[in-house]
Write a structure and sequence with these properties.
alpha+beta; PH-domain like; 6-stranded mixed sheet
Length: about 190
């Protein structure tokens, strides 16, 4: 039986919520690599300008400009992942996700009031890209979500591990309050 799997840990900056530490660590590593490439390119371009080498400065300037977009994207992914982990309602060890491209499974899934984290991919309800939580059905042992934007509709099914009706009702009320989606509580699978 899966239970609420959010635990407190002591970090250097105080108390924090432990959530997908290996995933967040690898995302931060990629962010650091992007930042290092951007910084190196920018500094190299700045150093070649006074040396009167405009061709080399232009090449490194283009590299800096090209590395700015991945740096921004990775920074946003790390931000949303940390935010989802900090406000998670439930953490599930595995989920079956069906999307427009077929079926895939995720190693760990985090459901928060404003988003969902499937492996390394955060889905934020209604922020920017238009991903919306469409439907939530809570069964006795499992939970089914439908979310997406326009034509692309994703479905996720996973065991929730909530033992009694009060926990299920509290979870459904939090989702309704934060997203406006009424969760259907089903009596049987």
């Amino acid at each position: 039986m899966v239970r609420y799997n959010v635990r407190k840990i002591q970090t250097n900056s105080g108390w924090g919520v432990a959530c997908l530490n290996p995933v967040l660590a690898s995302m931060k590593k990629r962010l650091f690599i992007c930042a290092a490439i951007f910084t190196f390119s920018l500094l190299a371009a700045a150093l070649f300008i006074p040396a009167n080498r405009p061709a080399a400065a232009a090449v490194f300037g283009v590299c800096a400009a090209a590395s700015a977009a991945p740096l921004y994207r990775q920074g946003r992914r790390v931000y949303w992942t940390k935010l989802i982990c900090d406000s998670s309602l439930i953490t599930i060890p595995a989920a079956v996700v069906t999307g427009p491209g077929g079926e895939q499974s995720s190693s760990e899934t985090v459901v928060a009031t404003f988003g969902l984290l499937l492996g390394e991919k955060p889905y934020i309800w209604g922020c920017g890209k238009g991903v919306r939580l469409r439907e939530l059905k809570i069964y006795e042992r499992t939970m089914r979500l439908k979310f997406g934007d326009g034509d692309a509709l994703w479905r996720a099914e996973f065991p929730h591990g909530m033992a009694d009706g009060a926990q299920i009702a509290e979870f459904a009320e939090k989702i309704r309050y934060e997203t406006g989606v009424n969760a259907e509580i089903m009596n049987n699978e």
